[in-house]
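Late entry, NAI complex.
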Amino acid sequence: MKICVIPGDGIGPEIIAQALRVMDILKQDGLKFETEHALLGGCAVDATGVPYPEATQKIARAADAVLFGAIGGPKWDNLPRNQRPERGLLGIRKDLNLFANLRPAMLYPELANASTLKPEVVSGLDIMIVRELTGDIYFGEPRGITVEDGKRVGRNTMIYNEDEIRRIGHVAFQAARKRNKKVCSIDKMNVLETTQLWRDIMIEISAEYPDVELSHMLVDNAAMQLVRNPKQFDVMVTGNIFGDILSDEASMLTGSIGMLPSASLDENNKGLYEPIHGSAPDIAGKNLANPLATILSAAMMLRYTFNKEAEATRIENAVKKVLADGYRTGDIYEEGTKKVSCSEMGDAVVAAM
Ligand code: NAI
Ligand code: MG
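Prediction complete; structure with ligand written out below:
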């Protein structure tokens, strides 16, 4: 097990340090893995002039998984587009062919008040959005703004071929097998032919998963159902643009950006694992960040790339225990709980392990 570790910018190094402490507990207990650190984003621009340096490419390609903190910050905001830190992240995703984005949204009962929705709507929420990342209207040709008959015309093309749909479908069905065995495929087949093909392919491959229940929903209804009754879902699978919007909507159901991990996978379950939040420049360097999203990203890495279900569950249970014991970083603090720093939250998780 080879892990490329990329702390990145802002709070990245602080939260990654806590995730590595948790991984070290597993190592002490016999789990064998190697780590190698690499630069990405703003710190890479400072050190090498580019956001995704060759040395990082080498390490990331040779690894089985990448554990990543966050990148970006005001320091680099005025750089030209192709030198900006974000280019580093887009670059590594494309380079490693990470086409499947897995974003769980789950609510810990202790944090029920963090959500803007009523506790009965979100309590016990545990859903997974599987978003296709490398196709759809974001990449389809032709595209651009042209002048036709004296008028400016904007154009993008929604396009998926059956292989692209099939491979993301398999990721969703396999994820459902590790969960509650339900897949809801999201499309707009009443209007868009591309998504009619999407639905047809999902139905085709569902034959290979008789143990998983497949349903379909139009995207506009899905957006409503996510806030009306999100607990009806287990795994939701959808294309790039619908998934972009629905995954952000779903992550906010729980109200705690510092709690949610994510995975981006290739065809062999090699993956990049990161918290959904950014580099939080406003609290960087102050030991205030919530490291739990990153610690839970390490758990996802153990589950999806390394098939270490017991170790993944052990980390997740430790996180549940520290929340039950009342430990809170500032972002999830409420009266009557114990306010802790980033490293103290790490201490608590390590102790719970
Ligand atoms: P952000 O997610 O960094 O921060 C939004 C708010 O949430 C801030 O108030 C921040 O303090 C808070 N927050 C975020 N993570 C937290 C944590 N773990 N614990 C406690 N509080 C936390 O988003 P923002 O402010 O829009 O972007 C800041 C920088 O991050 C920008 O340069 C942006 O480009 C970059 N970014 C990077 C991402 C990545 O590396 N994947 C994703 C999103 C933004
Ligand atoms: Mg988005």
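The two ends are 21 Å apart (CA to CA). Will revisit in the morning.
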